[in-house]
Amino acid sequence: MLSAIVLPCGAAAAEERDGSDERGLGADGQPIVVTGHALADPEKIATLPVVVLSGDELVHRRGGTIGETLDGLPGIHMDNFGAGASRPVIRGQTIPRIAILNNGADVFDASSASPDHAVVTDPLLLDAIEIQRGPAAIAYGGNAVNGAVNLIDGKIPTQLPAGGLTGSSELRFGRADDEIGGATRVTAGVGQFAVHAEGSFSDRDDYDVPDGYGSDRLRDSFANAHSYAFGASWITGKGYVGLAYTRQEAEYGLPGHSHVNAVCHTHGLDLHCAAHGGYGDPFGSPDDHTAYIDLQSERVDLRAGYTELLPGIEHVRLRGSYTDYAHDEIDGPSLFTLYTNEVWDGRLEFTHKPILGFTGTLGVQYTDGTFTGININDMHKPFTQNGYGFDGSPDYHTENVGLFLSERRRFGPIDLEFALRKDWREISVTPPPFRITLSPQYEALFAGWYGAEWRQMLEDEYVDWFNERNPGAKHDPLSASIGATWNIANGYSLAVSLGHTERAPSVRELYARGNNLATNSYELGLASSNPILEEEGLDAEDVLETSDAINLTFRKTGGLLEFEVGVFHQDIDDYVFARLIEIEAEAGIPHNFLIYTAADASFTGIDGQMSYRFSQNSRVTVFGDYVDTNLKTENDNLPRISPGRLGARYDWGRGPLSANVEYYHTFKQDKVALYETPTEGYGMLNATIAYRFAIESGSELELYARGTNLTDELAFVHTSFVKNQSPLRGRNVVFGLRHTF
């Protein structure tokens, strides 16, 4: 059993992520279908691989979040935030520098706005997870500069189920957090139609932490979720078209959260964390409540894929979605903040037949979305008498058009591949409703100051002030990559890729202005009257993060010895990061004043794995990763950079019984930003054992147990904003029972 499978299809390679290449059993008991654009011999290695976690390995490794599920694969860490939210960190960087996709279409949630926001998906319902890099990721734009994580599910069938009906069910029980979870899926075929239904649930209490932390359980680390989806497809010999509706709800705690700094505000470049004048404590209550997020997401997906539909076109692929996402951030009895994200998205791709030996894909994507929620931290306060001002959150409306092309050709033993994408993005900001509630005597007073049109004049004054701090922004990034693979002989290959990626700043990087209590910080965005940019004579539209990268990959496939080692270097101009201005501890808990700015930076690293098969039944694998950074123009280091890691795993299997044991050491990270402290290293011992029973009519039943942190080591994750308040789970064993038919 492998932790990760290198799928031999690359950039131009990805047409139907639900296609026909067998990679193990999916949740319905059918072969995982992970294929690519039919552009070349699928058995050849592409410029950069698509790493796939699927089959039994996905079933046994998956946790409650995508970050937890992928953590430990070479080059991938997570930014732990309790049990409810953790995002993957790839080669030292996370969202918004990696894209999260669902079957090739963007996942629209609020995970890019703050690390305490979960990626909306349930790993229990996934068939596979792909990690794409290089030319494979260029098609998804600048936000995929460090890769794209593609979450593959089966809610829209792409083929008729074998025998007319397939399905699966699974139950899980976890010791460290009293986890109870389960999922069920079924797909039925009727003529040319296939229908699918699925659902899942999980209920996890605060999890156990090692004794050295000072308490038995981590307060507010609970996480509960449930989801369901219905889909249907019309399937012909040339392809399919299908629709699906998905709803997910989750409730999870925020360890390390405190509202005592909700009073913090700025006077110029000075952070002040005490009430005075118009600056009051929006809570005025003890700081001992449970803080949690209550999340709801609804999504409608349209997917289609057809071959030989148009002359000269090998394949047409359509992805469309409507997402209605919202979550409440609740502190005790109070609604603190409400985030929403409503997005329409469409993506159309045409794979052409060979032209001068080149086969490729031309595509266009259009996205229209409205995001709300940042900079509001007092939604629970009623708009009382004798008050005026904005009531609620601004609307951040984004419209984006992207055009992309990828091409590939083979020259003898050399595979050549290139891709490019051009985007046109515009963000406009609409102020919240303006409210005036004054007693008659105050109305008369304002009328004396402003005249008969005092209401309109007061509103215009506030709107002008708002627009000054929240200007619209236009960015037109261009990204391109070219790569080549030399297929040497006997399974050896050497690949190189060069990439130029431009990334436009995210909504939070542009418009943050206020307290983010989940990360204990007061943040100021690039466009929010940013004093650092103003000092340099720049505005937010002048900032476009530009990365030039080189990747080298040496691999061997087949035989007793297999390996893949990747070396990379990125030079980044105008790298956007939150620069420390001041740490204020007046309220008793340190609060960081951070201003988003841009500086030149570089990332250099290595990751990979090597395995040796002793026999048909046993194999040992050594794996590891390391990344080093350099912030070139600042007297500081980049924050939350993943430390080095080195580990080994032994896999064994015979007949229906399989097992593995894994140990890795995460090293100390002492290259830290000014507002960070070094993080000690730790060792992690994990093991899995599984037994599969054959049942009549081709069904299978599997019983498995997965143990993590078996030595019960106290471990803190340097990539987390709340590392000291959110250690990793202590010793845990998850028991699972899975039935497929």
Helix content: under 10%
Tell me the overall shape: globular
Tally of DSSP β-strands: 39
Q: What is the CATH homologous superfamily assignment? A: TonB-dependent receptor, beta-barrel domain
Alpha-beta content class: mainly beta
Q: Gap between N and C termini, in Å? A: 22 Å
Structural write-up:
The chain is mostly beta strands and 741 residues long. It has one domain: TonB-dependent receptor, beta-barrel domain (Maltoporin, Chain A), CATH 2.40.170. The protein has seven helices and 39 strands. The protein has a 22-stranded antiparallel beta barrel. It has a six-stranded mixed β-sheet with strand order 1-4-9-10-7-8. Strand 33 and strand 34 form a beta hairpin. Helix 4 crosses helix 5. The N terminus is likely disordered.
Give a brief outline of the structure:
By secondary structure, the protein is mainly β.
Strand and helix layout:
Blueprint lengths: L4 E3 L14 E4 L5 E3 L16 E5 H7 L4 H5 L5 E3 L9 E3 L8 E4 L2 E2 L21 E5 L2 H4 L9 E5 L12 E10 L4 E12 L2 E12 L18 E13 L3 E15 L11 E3 L2 E3 L18 E20 L2 E19 L2 E22 L2 E15 L14 E4 L4 E17 L2 E17 L3 E4 L2 H11 L3 H16 L3 E3 L2 E12 L2 E12 L3 H5 L1 E4 L4 E4 L6 H5 L9 E12 L4 E24 L6 E25 L2 E14 L13 E10 L2 E10 L15 E13 L5 E9 L23 E9 L1
Parallel strand pairs: 7-10, 30-33
Antiparallel strand pairs: 1-4, 2-3, 4-9, 5-6, 7-8, 9-10, 11-12, 11-39, 12-13, 13-14, 14-15, 15-18, 16-17, 18-19, 19-20, 20-21, 21-23, 22-25, 23-24, 24-26, 24-27, 27-28, 28-31, 29-30, 31-32, 32-33, 33-34, 34-35, 35-36, 36-37, 37-38, 38-39
Helix pairs in contact: 4-5
